[in-house]
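Dear colleagues,

As part of the handover before I leave the project, I'm documenting each prediction I ran so the next person doesn't have to rerun anything. This entry is a single chain, and its sequence is reproduced below.
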Amino acid sequence: MGNNLTHIDETGAANMVDVGDKTHTNRIAVAVGTIIMNASTLEIIVQGNAKKGDVIGTARIAGIMAAKKTHELIPLCHPLMLTSVKVSIEPDDKLPGLRIEAIAKVGGQTGVEMEALTAVSVACLTVYDMAKAVDRGMEIGQIKLVKKSGGKSGSWSADTQ
């Protein structure tokens, strides 16, 4: 892996990377994150008693929608024809809060890491928005890529780093 930033040219200007000559491969990225909250807030969410409605279901849909719009949100990202985006949201009493995972898939010439990370980020933000009336102190964090496969660089996992 080189030390050169792929989106910066020799003059220092930002540019979209030309992926036209890259090999078409199946690519998968997995990202995770958490939103920590008061135990009472988690209980409201899990029981489905939030005033704004189904927090987990809405956050899941928001994450999927965000992955599909990543190229509109992050400069220099390519628009991708995603083949799958799955967002799972699980309560965790130990946090207390929610653990969010996104899996993005594409068959193409560039990776889907940003789509998976965007899905997790927006899902967390949606939870915050829907529950902020009862808990403004929620903390979004630990958003990271945990696995990717496909492309020239092959497979990568945070577990092996």
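The mean pLDDT is 94. The first strand starts at residue 25 and ends at 36.

All the best with the project,
I.
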